[in-house]
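hiii so um. not sure if this is the right channel but i have a protein structure encoded as tokens and i wanna go backwards to a sequence. like what aa goes where. can anyone help
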């Protein structure tokens, strides 16, 4: 029996600081799909339309697992590595989907960007967050997390697919580690 069909605590969400760490949910298909969607969107800084359009042909599960990110809004495409926990979640999700799209609705069709936005808002409300949540917050959280981890602005620019550096600079302006090693 697959992990989706059993009841157990979902601890693979612990890497998603944007949504409060570990979550205690029953892993139905929809919950598992939603957890995977949030993790992939956060780790790769995806927009709602990029999540909705994500196809299995963009997921490479071989020796060096990678996600081939096709950016919207004339962004630069990139190839991002996929970490082990994320790969396991994607493989489990793939075993339980039938179509070409990574994230399918309960009816088996692809999501629209609006449906992804509604889903993330619903997840935020279900998590009882004290503020409204939208999908683009995951993209911003990705940028801030990379900046706070001390990554170079150009790396963040390429990771998020920004063509112009001024769109990326916002993430480094508030980083507490920005001046950490200036005099060392």
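sure thing!! here u go:
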């Amino acid at each position: 029996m697959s992990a989706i069909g059993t009841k157990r605590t979902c601890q693979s969400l612990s890497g998603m600081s944007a949504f409060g760490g570990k979550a205690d949910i029953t892993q139905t298909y929809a919950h598992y799909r939603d957890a995977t969607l949030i993790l992939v969107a956060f780790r790769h800084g995806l927009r709602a339309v990029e999540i909705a359009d994500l196809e299995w042909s963009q997921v490479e599960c071989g020796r060096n697992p990678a996600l081939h990110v096709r950016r919207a809004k004339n962004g630069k495409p990139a190839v991002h590595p996929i970490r082990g926990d994320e790969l396991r979640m994607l493989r489990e999700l793939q075993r339980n989907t039938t179509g070409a799209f990574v994230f399918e609705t309960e009816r088996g069709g692809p999501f629209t960007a609006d449906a992804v936005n509604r889903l993330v808002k619903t997840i935020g409300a279900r998590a009882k967050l004290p503020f409204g949540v939208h999908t683009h917050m995951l993209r911003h959280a990705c940028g801030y997390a990379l900046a706070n981890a001390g990554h170079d602005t150009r790396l963040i620019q390429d990771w998020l697919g920004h063509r112009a550096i001024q769109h990326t600079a916002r993430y480094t302006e508030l980083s507490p580690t920005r001046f950490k090693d200036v005099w060392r």
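oh and Helices lie at 29-44, 48-52, 84-95, 113-126, 136-148, 153-160, 166-173.
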